[in-house]
Design goal:
Rossmann fold, alpha/beta, 160 residues
């Protein structure tokens, strides 16, 4: 089943994604978009890797997520992927990569993303562009998957 897990920061999205993906038969793949750009992020990546243990083969792919996904896969996470594209000056590639990802979406995949559209409107143009781009990506992914779950305080709520 194709599932999108969406929610706020520390809402339990990654934990829920692993829970669902552990139901996939082995081998399983985890596509990680995060980069260790500081010590805190390196610690978070190490913690997440330890949580997965040897249940998943990890592919670290910050930008070309469309080429990295496999059958029986977790893709974590869309906001960091988008951040990487913005940081590298590749914002214009967002729609093309997303088109390609949706076209080759595996039957068994769990995608993790953040809901950032429920807060205040950002003050600067780049942050507004980022939020709008993430909102569009989330809507497209939600339309392409079979199930959408919103994580609230560690509790999954079925949206679709």
């Amino acid at each position: 089943m194709r599932t999108l897990i969406i929610g706020g920061v520390k809402s339990g999205k990654s934990r829920r994604a692993l829970e669902l993906a552990r139901e996939f038969p082995a081998p399983r793949t985890f596509v990680a978009t995060a980069r260790a750009f500081d010590a805190e992020m390196a610690e978070k990546i190490a913690r997440h890797r330890a949580e997965r243990g040897d249940a998943f083969e990890t592919i670290e792919e910050p930008c070309s997520i469309d080429r990295a996904v496999r059958e029986r896969c977790v893709l974590d996470c869309i906001p960091l992927w988008l951040n990487n594209l913005f940081f590298e000056g590749r914002e214009s590639e967002t729609e093309g990569i997303l088109d390609s990802l949706i076209a080759r979406l595996p039957v068994s995949i769990v995608i993790v993303t953040n809901e950032v559209g429920m807060g205040i409107i950002p003050a600067d143009p780049m942050t507004r562009r980022y939020g709008e781009a993430l909102g569009r990506a989330n809507a497209r992914l939600a339309a392409a998957v079979d199930r959408v779950e919103l994580m609230v305080a560690g509790i999954p709520l079925r949206v679709k």
